[in-house]
Specification:
Blueprint: H1 3-17, E1 22-25, E2 32-33, H2 40-48, E3 52-56, E4 61-62, H3 64-74, E5 82-84, H4 96-110, E6 117-119, H5 128-138, E7 147-149, H6 156-176, E8 185-187, H7 194-208, E9 213-215, H8 223-233, E10 241-243, H9 250-261, E11 269-271, H10 278-289, E12 297-299, H11 307-317, E13 325-327, H12 334-349, H13 373-385, H14 391-394, E14 397-399, E15 402-404, E16 419-423, E17 429-433, H15 434-437, H16 442-447, H17 451-455, H18 461-474
Parallel strand pairs: 1-3, 2-4, 3-5, 5-6, 6-7, 7-8, 8-9, 9-10, 10-11, 11-12, 12-13
Antiparallel strand pairs: 14-15, 16-17
Length: about 475
């Protein structure tokens, strides 16, 4: 073969290997795919795509049979990298979700594809959703995973622990295979992770040391969980974006987090809005921000921060040449404090509109009680209470994959209970059933859920029921 022919062969090979990435998107089509026939348009689009890098099924609803048909098409796509599968189980029975996910993930595994992005946000599946992806997460197809997006899936503590186990095994297998997992983006807002779920996932973050973006807002995490998270973030020195909005780290958590972030060299965005960090927490954050040379955005809204705390933050940021946005609304500045803060910001950043409006300020710092150790004691009490979350925001509770509806059956026999009349302190009469006088345990109520037994649970029956469910079914104490 002549040198010229050899060069032509090399050129042909290079052109063949330099195919432009492509994808298939049915995002927002609102398709209801139940059967293989229903899934035919998606299957045909996948088969017609010469180099399928991404598949976007957001906003459709996928049944098990349809998922199996789509998975069959994915088996022939080893180049597949981005599974964009948000919001695709609306109206589905919860038993369908893990089966559909296992089918889709199985197709990717059979193709021996190397996935980089998995987005299952807004599927609200609960812990059973993790059942559908656990084997996949452990497989070689996820050794290359860079982004894991699970926003609003209702994972709960159980789901978070299951996910942590799968990711840790993936780490171990990938490392043994000479291809360490380098997860860069983890998104899991509104998932009821709480302290225990956060602690479990922190084990993963500590192991990988590769996070660049972590977003877990609205998860009911107190300082115990934030402390575990901080220990893990210390080892993720290239972290660029951190969002803990609407959790409860308070002062203790803010201080632990600030110490950890001192070791981070790339931080660009920090969101601690509505985190109850108060003034001492803001001062700790300010100390850390002195070393955050790449910082661009800081959110400290609704934290009961006083003027001196705000001043400390502003002073820490004034030398940061890339800084563009500071949100301090909803704190304790008062009119005079707001004026001083705006003046200082204008002097430093001139007319760059760095500061938010401060229109929702919550009053003068004089109206706020001084920070004291009593607040930390109050926080510990709140943690022990295991605050119940509104199901409308955080999804349903699950009992071994079965949804607990919260509906209680009434027993018509209660109407026949013996009744007597008693007088209260105002000499007015009321009827009291004999059922009201007895005391029953939560276990007895669950065995016989009558109205009378509910009343006999005593004070705060809902809290007692939640505690029993957490202990008996989820092993959370």
């Amino acid at each position: 073969m002549s040198g010229e022919d050899k060069n032509v062969d090399i050129l042909v090979k290079l052109l063949k290997d330099t195919r432009l990435p492509d994808g298939v998107s049915f995002a927002g089509k609102g398709l209801k795919l139940n059967t293989a026939e229903d899934a035919k348009p998606v299957v045909e689009a996948i088969e017609a795509c010469d180099y399928l890098v991404s598949l976007n099924l957001e906003g459709n609803t996928i049944g098990v049979e349809a998922a199996e048909a789509i998975a069959k098409a994915l088996e022939k796509k080893p180049e597949f990298k981005c599974a964009l599968w948000k919001d695709m189980f609306t109206g589905r029975l919860k038993e369908e979700i893990p089966k559909a996910l296992k089918a889709l993930c199985g197709g990717v595994m059979k193709a021996k594809a190397q996935l980089e992005v998995l987005d299952l946000s807004d599927n609200a599946s609960g812990p059973i959703g993790v059942d559908g992806i656990s084997d996949f997460i452990r497989s070689p197809s996820c050794y290359t995973l860079k982004e894991l997006r699970l926003n609003n899936m209702g994972l709960g503590v159980t789901g978070a622990q299951m996910l942590s186990d799968a990711l840790l095994e993936c780490c171990w297998r990938a490392e043994k295979d000479g291809n360490p997992l380098e997860l860069k983006v983890f998104i899991a807002g509104r998932n009821r992770l709480e302290n225990e779920g956060t602690k479990a996932l922190s084990c993963v973050f500590k192991k990988i040391e590769s996070l660049e973006e972590l977003s877990i807002p609205q998860n009911g995490i107190y300082h115990v969980g934030i402390k575990a998270l901080s220990d893990a973030l210390y080892f993720n020195r290239n972290l660029k974006r951190l969002n803990l909005n609407d959790n409860s780290p308070r002062e203790m958590g803010a201080k632990a987090l600030s110490r950890a972030l001192n070791n981070v060299i790339a931080l660009k965005s920090l969101d601690l809005g509505d985190c109850l960090i108060k003034n001492s927490g803001a001062l700790a954050v300010a100390e850390m921000l002195h070393h955050a040379h790449h910082i661009e955005e800081v959110v400290l809204s609704f934290n009961s921060i006083k003027v001196d705390g705000a001043f400390a933050v502003i002073e820490a940021l004034k030398s940061k040449k890339n800084f563009t946005s500071l949100k301090l609304d909803g704190n304790k500045f008062g009119e005079n404090g707001i004026a001083k803060i705006k003046t200082l910001v204008d002097e430093i950043w001139k007319s760059k509109n760095v500061l938010d409006s401060l229109e929702e300020d919550e009053g003068s710092e004089d109206d706020d009680e001084d920070d004291n150790d009593g607040e930390e004691a109050e926080e510990e009490e709140e943690e022990e209470d295991n605050e119940e979350y509104d199901d409308e925001e955080s999804g349903s509770l699950y009992d071994n994959g079965e949804e607990i509806s919260g509906e209680e059956e009434e027993d018509d026999d209660d109407e026949d209970d013996d009744v007597k009349v008693v007088e209260n302190d105002n000499n007015t009469s009321r009827k009291v059933t004999t059922e009201e006088k007895k005391v029953v345990t939560v276990s007895e109520f669950i065995a016989n859920p009558t109205i009378g037994n509910l009343m006999a649970l005593g004070k705060d029956p809902a809290d007692k029921l939640v505690d029993e469910i957490m202990v008996s079914y989820f092993n959370i104490v």
